[in-house]
Amino acid sequence: MDAFYASVEQRDFPEFRGHPLAVGGSPDGRGVVATASYEARKFGVRSAMSSRQAMQLCPHLLFTPPRFDVYKGVSSHIRTIFKRYTDMIEPLSLDEAYLDVTEDKLKIGSAIEIAKQIKDAIRNELNLTASAGVSTNKFIAKIASDYNKPDGLTFIGPSKIIPFMEALPIDKFFGVGKVTAQKMKGKGIHYGKDLKKYSQEELIRQFGKSGKFYFHIVRGQDNRPVQPNRISKSIGAEDTFETDISDVMVLKTELQNLVLKVERRIDSKAKMGRTVTLKVKFSDFTQITRSYTSIYYINSYADIYAQVEKLFDNLLLDEKKVRLLGVTLSNFYEEDVKKLESNQLSLF
């Protein structure tokens, strides 16, 4: 989906249409932006940015609180559209999914035509736009879906994969973060063709286990199947910062944003868990994790953040500079959430 939360708000509230809009955060400078409209993105406003910084970039920015129940309802409708064409659906979040249309229900026989029809159905039934990527595997399709936003449809066929990947800027590689991209550029790796010059062994030496991943993706190789019933052992989010951070309040703001992402992801998968884990990597690349396991199952922002904040406050940072923060929820209750909710008295 294109700027999903912001697009839903602009659809439902005419006063937001055509104006720079941030979902999440507030005009008093507190909190962080969850999603920015395309009008706001032109000013450099992006998700995970503090409200204060967003207003500095765009003084006339509008703010609205998120309505997750509404977004979940829209996401459910989108899923019903997908199911008209295939049952092989692997959700990544409320607004993104992989579809395997090798055997499509309607016998259309063209992945491109199926993508067009899905985009049209989303527009006609929900008055929203989506971007689609069509290719032979998940990795290339993911890159293609981001290539021509908003309202895009990009097809990368087998004969086009290698030249496409060779010409792709390293910043655009799905799975290559900002810090890694800068490290690559420092070694003269600016495009896929530069990355392709390195052997798998060299990439592993330079980038650890991820080197094997980089070796294969630059060649367009990804054999992962679409997994409609994938069992997740943990769901989390992490962020590597452009510059190391020692300010506790800034770090807590980053934690709030990470917990927001985790809540969205567990909500889309109908999960509840008991173990919250905080991951911290420092500027010297040392890393620690701290976990807390509750007797209760939790899945809300408030409950997850309460535990994460306790774990964070118990750390002895001593003004250490932090390079990365991560939050995960695990130890899931694997039965249907509706069954769990109907038996809350016996469980809790």
From TrEMBL:
<comment type="function">
    <text>Poorly processive, error-prone DNA polymerase involved in untargeted mutagenesis. Copies undamaged DNA at stalled replication forks, which arise in vivo from mismatched or misaligned primer ends. These misaligned primers can be extended by PolIV. Exhibits no 3'-5' exonuclease (proofreading) activity. May be involved in translesional synthesis, in conjunction with the beta clamp from PolIII.</text>
</comment>
<keyword id="KW-0548">Nucleotidyltransferase</keyword>
<keyword id="KW-0963">Cytoplasm</keyword>
<feature type="site" description="Substrate discrimination">
    <location>
        <position position="5"/>
    </location>
</feature>
<dbReference type="GO" id="GO:0006261">
    <property type="term" value="P:DNA-templated DNA replication"/>
</dbReference>
<dbReference type="GO" id="GO:0042276">
    <property type="term" value="P:error-prone translesion synthesis"/>
</dbReference>
<feature type="domain" description="UmuC">
    <location>
        <begin position="1"/>
        <end position="177"/>
    </location>
</feature>
<dbReference type="Pfam" id="PF00817">
    <property type="entry name" value="IMS"/>
</dbReference>
<keyword id="KW-0515">Mutator protein</keyword>
<dbReference type="InterPro" id="IPR017961">
    <property type="entry name" value="DNA_pol_Y-fam_little_finger"/>
</dbReference>
<keyword id="KW-0479">Metal-binding</keyword>
<keyword id="KW-0460">Magnesium</keyword>
<keyword id="KW-0234">DNA repair</keyword>
<dbReference type="GO" id="GO:0006281">
    <property type="term" value="P:DNA repair"/>
</dbReference>
<feature type="active site">
    <location>
        <position position="96"/>
    </location>
</feature>
<dbReference type="GO" id="GO:0003887">
    <property type="term" value="F:DNA-directed DNA polymerase activity"/>
</dbReference>
<comment type="subunit">
    <text>Monomer.</text>
</comment>
<dbReference type="InterPro" id="IPR024728">
    <property type="entry name" value="PolY_HhH_motif"/>
</dbReference>
<dbReference type="GO" id="GO:0005829">
    <property type="term" value="C:cytosol"/>
</dbReference>
<keyword id="KW-0235">DNA replication</keyword>
<dbReference type="InterPro" id="IPR001126">
    <property type="entry name" value="UmuC"/>
</dbReference>
<dbReference type="InterPro" id="IPR050116">
    <property type="entry name" value="DNA_polymerase-Y"/>
</dbReference>
<dbReference type="Pfam" id="PF11799">
    <property type="entry name" value="IMS_C"/>
</dbReference>
<dbReference type="GO" id="GO:0000287">
    <property type="term" value="F:magnesium ion binding"/>
</dbReference>
<protein>
    <recommendedName>
        <fullName>DNA polymerase IV</fullName>
        <ecNumber>2.7.7.7</ecNumber>
    </recommendedName>
</protein>
<feature type="binding site">
    <location>
        <position position="95"/>
    </location>
    <ligand>
        <name>Mg(2+)</name>
    </ligand>
</feature>
<dbReference type="GO" id="GO:0003684">
    <property type="term" value="F:damaged DNA binding"/>
</dbReference>
<keyword id="KW-0227">DNA damage</keyword>
<keyword id="KW-0239">DNA-directed DNA polymerase</keyword>
<keyword id="KW-0808">Transferase</keyword>
<dbReference type="InterPro" id="IPR043128">
    <property type="entry name" value="Rev_trsase/Diguanyl_cyclase"/>
</dbReference>
<dbReference type="GO" id="GO:0009432">
    <property type="term" value="P:SOS response"/>
</dbReference>
<dbReference type="InterPro" id="IPR036775">
    <property type="entry name" value="DNA_pol_Y-fam_lit_finger_sf"/>
</dbReference>
<keyword id="KW-0238">DNA-binding</keyword>
<dbReference type="InterPro" id="IPR043502">
    <property type="entry name" value="DNA/RNA_pol_sf"/>
</dbReference>
<dbReference type="Pfam" id="PF11798">
    <property type="entry name" value="IMS_HHH"/>
</dbReference>
<comment type="similarity">
    <text>Belongs to the DNA polymerase type-Y family.</text>
</comment>
<dbReference type="InterPro" id="IPR022880">
    <property type="entry name" value="DNApol_IV"/>
</dbReference>
